[in-house]
Specification:
The protein is an alpha/beta fold. The protein has helices spanning about 20-25, 45-50, 55-60, 65-70, 90-100, 120-130, 195-205, 330-340, 375, 390-405, 420-430; strands spanning about 75-80, 105-110, 135-140, 145, 160-165, 165, 185-190, 210-215, 220-225, 230-235, 245, 250, 255-260, 265-270, 275-280, 285-290, 295-300, 305, 310, 320-325, 345-350, 380-385, 410-415, 440-445. Helix 5 (about 90-100) runs parallel beside helix 6. The longest helix has 14 residues, at about 90-100. The two termini are about 55 Å apart.
Length: about 475
């Protein structure tokens, strides 16, 4: 079926050969010394090349010849509304025409600027589902939440989805069933779900989901995670107690990792008020944090903490290699209690709060003399973020210096000015000459971003260490 010419979608653009690099190359075929290397390529290769070009540039190649005129409409589509050189008021109409004229598959669709009507948006999603879309990013520019129509459930080819300020459709609405068989990465940010059951149904319908990020999701108070494929789980709630979105319900209060045999990372960021976390079964969990005093209750196997205070200790999570803690004021006793739960821990991060909420009380315990396995055999790297050299911080650092037998580096990311006099005094009080690990290095650096948990997207599984700044 012939496709309409989409050139009108790119107004006020040069359509001459000199404005297009592909035209310049093909025109070179007139020169005997510079043969045409483009025309002999197959349509399959050319459409792949076109799919890698910005959409306006790819569209302009149709002026080259009759052959090029049919290539762009069948090339894999990368439609990013922020890349279209048209006024915001005309974006929706332009995108509707592009989707109607394009005959090929769709790779990416990003909605960042356009404000489509409900009917246009539903039509776009139906068209993209038919084009076997792989990557969907919805970040509507308006503060008003964007309802996803039931046609959203028609996607079967999605591999990556980021839904910001969107409301998910009710499970089964319009006869739709949640089934995203290839979805590997899902981010819900400032999103709203109809109910806990709807969110559970969504996760059940993603059998290949490897990375899940829940960043301020409303409408689900409790979530039980059961997934054979999930490798990374990131959770974030609002910074204040006001955790009810207008018309969207309350935020997550209880997270239970019930059965996640492939889970490697459980990451929490911007958590000052919860949720409570219970890890029942995650035999491959390697990375955990930030765990903070704002989490009302934390259960890790048989170990139980309430607001960072150990209620019951257990050393069952031998798989965890990296742990990050966040405290109003880092202190020895609670940190040591956590170390007892992770016998094979290799890397420890401890972050100090820039601001201490009134509801967060300062802990003050004396350290006992119990043997901590990871200190003697595994702990190699410790990073103290927001370090100021205060009493409790000094006690923690000194304890690590004296007892971490295989420590390789102790890094202080300092929140104050690291003057030469201050550094000399710190090293003297830490008694670095009496360190348990003779090869340990002590590094002091100025760090002005101690309020930031992750400088890079924590849900990115390719990051070796998301805590490392």
């Amino acid at each position: 079926m012939a496709c309409a010419n989409p050139l009108p979608f790119f107004p006020k653009m040069a359509t001459t050969a000199s404005a297009n690099p592909i035209r310049a190359i093909t025109a070179a075929g007139n020169d005997d010394e510079d043969p045409d290397l483009i025309s002999p390529l197959s349509d399959c290769i050319l459409t792949t090349i076109l799919s890698l070009l910005p959409l306006p540039v790819a569209g302009r190649t149709q002026v080259l010849s009759h052959r090029w005129r049919r290539l762009w409409p069948s090339a894999p589509l990368h439609l990013l509304d922020s890349h279209l050189p048209v006024p915001a008021s005309s974006l929706s109409a332009a995108m509707s025409r592009i989707l109607a004229s394009h005959c090929g598959s769709a790779v990416r669709f990003h909605l960042l600027v356009a404000r489509p009507s409900a009917s246009d948006f539903d039509s776009w999603l139906r068209s993209l589902a038919a084009k076997t879309l792989q990557e969907l990013v919805l970040r509507p520019p308006s503060d008003e939440i964007l309802p996803l129509p039931p046609s959203f459930l028609a996607f079967r080819s999605l591999r990556t989805a980021e839904l910001t300020n969107c409301r998910l459709p009710e499970h089964g609405a319009g006869g739709g069933k949640v089934n995203f068989p290839h979805l590997g990465e899902l981010t819900l940010r400032l999103a709203s779900v109809p109910s806990s059951a709807a969110l559970h149904a969504l996760l059940v319908g993603c059998p290949e989901l490897a990375s899940l990020s829940l960043d301020r999701v409303f409408g689900c108070r409790a979530l039980r995670v059961r997934s054979w494929s999930l490798r990374s789980l990131t959770v974030s709630v609002s910074l204040t107690r006001r955790r009810v979105q207008e018309g969207g319900g309350a935020e997550l209060e209880h997270l239970v990792v019930e059965d996640a045999p492939a889970l490697e990372r459980l990451l929490a960021h911007d958590i000052n008020w919860g949720p409570s976390i219970n890890v029942v079964r995650a035999p491959r969990l390697q990375m955990l944090g930030y765990l903070g005093i704002g989490i009302p209750e934390l259960q890790l196997g048989s170990a139980l903490f309430r607001s960072m205070c150990a209620v019951r200790l257990g050393a069952e999570l031998r798989c965890v290699r990296t742990l990050a803690l966040e405290m109003a004021e880092p202190q020895l006793k609670p940190v040591a209690d956590f170390l007892k739960c992770f016998p094979c821990l290799e890397t420890l991060y401890v972050m100090s709060h820039m601001v201490v909420p009134q509801s967060m009380r300062i802990l003050n315990h004396e350290m006992d003399d119990d043997r901590i396995e990871c200190l003697h055999h595994h702990l190699k790297k410790v990073v103290l973020k927001g370090y100021r050299g205060q009493k409790h911080e000094m006690q923690l650092a000194s304890f690590l210096v004296r007892h971490a037998s295989v420590l390789q580096v102790l890094k202080f990311l300092c929140a104050n000015v690291c003057s030469a006099k201050w550094l000399t005094n710190q090293k003297r009080q830490l008694q670095v000459d009496s360190r348990a690990s003779l090869g340990a290095q002590f590094v002091f650096e100025k760090f002005s971003k101690s309020y930031i948990r992750f400088l890079k997207p924590a849900s990115n599984i390719s990051l070796v260490d998301p805590f490392d700044t």
